[in-house]
Write a structure and sequence with these properties.
The protein is of the alpha+beta class. It has two domains: 184 residues, Ribosomal Protein S5, domain 2 (2-Layer Sandwich), CATH 3.30.230; 136 residues, GHMP kinase, C-terminal domain (Alpha-Beta Plaits, 2-Layer Sandwich), CATH 3.30.70. 40% of the residues lie in helices and 24% in strands. The strands form four sheets. The chain has a five-stranded mixed sheet with strand order 3-6-2-1-13. A four-stranded antiparallel sheet has the order 10-11-9-12. Strands 4-5 form a two-stranded antiparallel ribbon. It is globular and about 55 Å long. It binds (3R)-3-hydroxy-3-methyl-5-(phosphonooxy)pentanoic acid (PMV). (3R)-3-hydroxy-3-methyl-5-(phosphonooxy)pentanoic acid binds next to helix 4 and helix 5.
């Protein structure tokens, strides 16, 4: 049975602005989604999802109707959103393998909380497309998987998606995405710490909010461009650093200052939340070089830079944080097991 895993990610810089053509630097982290696929004799798609969030759920769906388990302890909205991504990933895999009627049994396990800014949907889409096409006898390149996974997100998010999450999950490592230009970056191993508030944000809604704000106010469009400037400054710092050596204190200080700035700009665009701001401040107070929300915002995760254990320790005691952990850079993207 083909099984594939793909990593989640944190944004060092550039979420939201990347949707409007500014560059972004997401970094894959060692929290993975694993998808196993078996072809079925009929054209049905059955999804078994254990641990898709901290609590897990099971769903079976057929065509466009998704019936969630009534025992769920995960908000229905999140389940519907997750099944939407799986359903579209299956459509992409069928198209890629030119097998429009193929039926599948998919088993999904994930260490990445849903809708929390760590790229759970991209990781599930990447792993599902790779495993499902292999079940149909087609082996795609990482670039092709990234493209089909991007089309998945674009369809589910009504066009409001960038290539950042899906390219990063398929390729691994730190990547740079600007419009349709995508490349891997050689960066030193950055000491990411993640804080999770136990909640989630609605990516589609948050992206639509930033779009509406830019239509109303020119300064909101300037804020999006300013995020692009932050990313370009960060890129220059990374370009001067040796990818082999541990990051220097100066590099961490410089990147941290830019992360703080990026968080301020994202807050101005209305995508932060009280819990995310509280975790950002807990991280800064603990001595992190910088901290910001990661992903769409509205709730979910923050990312901080700290080579010591202090930030993770402080976050664990912060009232708004339910989980804090060190997130190692995942140098491998999609992996076949
Ligand atoms: O919260 P996530 O992991 O879905 O990240 C969303 C990132 C956005 O820039 C807001 C949207 C996108 O597709 O790039």
């Amino acid at each position: 049975m083909p099984t594939s895993t793909a990593p989640g990610k944190v944004y060092l810089f550039g979420e939201h602005a990347v949707v409007y053509g500014e560059p972004a630097i997401p970094c894959a982290v060692e929290r993975r989604a694993t998808v196993s696929v078996e072809e079925r004799a009929d054209d049905r798609v059955v999804v078994e999802a254990a641990d898709l969030t901290l609590d897990g759920f099971t769903v079976t769906f057929d065509g466009s109707t998704a019936d969630a388990d009534p025992e769920l302890d995960v908000p229905t909205r999140l389940v519907q959103s997750a099944t939407g991504y799986v359903e579209e990933a299956v459509a992409q895999a069928r198209a890629a393998a030119e097998a429009p009627e193929a039926g599948f049994e998919l088993t999904i396990e994930s260490e990445i909380p849903l809708g929390a800014g760590l790229g759970s949907s991209a990781a599930v889409a990447v792993a599902a497309i790779d495993a499902a096409t292999r079940a149909l006898g087609v082996t795609l390149s990482r670039e092709e998987i990234a493209e089909y996974a991007y089309q998945t997100e674009r369809a589910v998010q009504d066009g409001g998606a960038s290539r950042a999450d899906t390219f990063c999950s398929a390729m691994g490592g730190a990547v740079r995405v600007e419009g349709s230009e995508t490349q891997r970056l050689d960066t030193p191993p950055l000491p990411f710490v993640v804080g999770f508030d136990g909640g989630a944000g609605d990516t589609g809604k948050l992206v639509a909010g930033v779009s509406a704000l830019q239509e109303r106010h020119g300064f909101a469009a300037d804020t999006v461009q300013a995020i692009g400037d932050v990313v370009r400054s960060g890129e220059r710092l990374l370009a001067d650093a040796s990818p082999e050596a541990e990051p220097s204190p100066d590099l961490l200080k410089g990147l941290g200052e830019l992360m703080d700035f990026d968080h301020g700009l994202l807050s101005a665009l209305g995508v932060s939340a009280r819990s995310l701001d509280a975790m950002v401040w807990a991280a800064r107070d603990a001595g992190a070089h910088g901290a910001k929300l990661t992903g769409a915002g509205g709730g979910g995760c923050i990312v901080a830079l700290d080579p010591t254990g202090e930030t993770a320790r402080a976050l664990r005691y912060a009232p708004d944080c339910v989980d804090a952990f060190r997130a190692e850079l995942a140098t491998e993207g999609v992996v076949r097991t």
